[in-house]
Design brief:
Radius of gyration: 19 Å
Shape: globular
Largest sheet: none
Number of helices: 6
Structural class: mainly alpha
Helix content: 55-70%
Number of strands: 0
Length: about 130
Amino acid sequence: METAIEEQAAYAIGDDFIKFLEADNTFHSIIFQAIGMQRIWNIILAQGGNHHRIRLLSFYQKNVLSEIIEQHRLMLNALKHKQLDTILNLEDKHLSKLLQETELMVGRYPDYFKQEKTYAPLQFQHNQTWRLS
């Protein structure tokens, strides 16, 4: 994890957003692997086209890269010291940041994103009677 963070810092200095994203993915992959959920991370990578675009676009915003690096350093420190509450708080901040960036990027670059159709939730027929034979 430390190596991934240091790579992120180096790529941020050079504005190499693709390499920064690769190091960021490595950081997150290590976490998912450590908790036995590598398959979930693989699904996120495979299905996260808009998420990927949002992350890359957000890197152009002032202080985004430095904030990511700082959050990752704080997470690693909290993990080293087994501070679960701190880790959970940092995780909430990290994920809420992504939601904020999503709103901002979709609003700023609407043509870059496919609009998803919304579907009505499944409805069950409550008037049907079930009997055991």
